[in-house]
Amino acid sequence: MNILYFLVGCSVLMALIFLCAFIWAAKTGQNDDVYTPGIRILFDDELEEEKSEEDHFSS
Fold first, then answer.
1. What are phi and psi of 20, to 5 degrees?
2. pTM of the predicted model, to two decimals?
3. pLDDT in tens, 13-41
4. Measured CA distances, 29 to 2, 12, 14, 17 (Å)
5. Who's near 25: CB < 8 A, 6+ residues apart?
6. Under DSSP, is residue 19 helix (H, G, I), strand (E, B) or coil?
């Protein structure tokens, strides 16, 4: 029975740590822009291809 008290205490402590981390992330603006990072990966290859084409033309 003592192990149950220990496990409940550990789970409450972990929940508080995750809650504090969430509140910190919300206050520091970690979740302000959730749209741009998802679409940024779609355009990275095109930008690299344009740069490499410009390098070939300038050589």
1. -65, -40
2. 0.53
3. 999 999 999 999 889 887 777 788 778 77
4. 41, 26, 23, 19
5. 31
6. helix
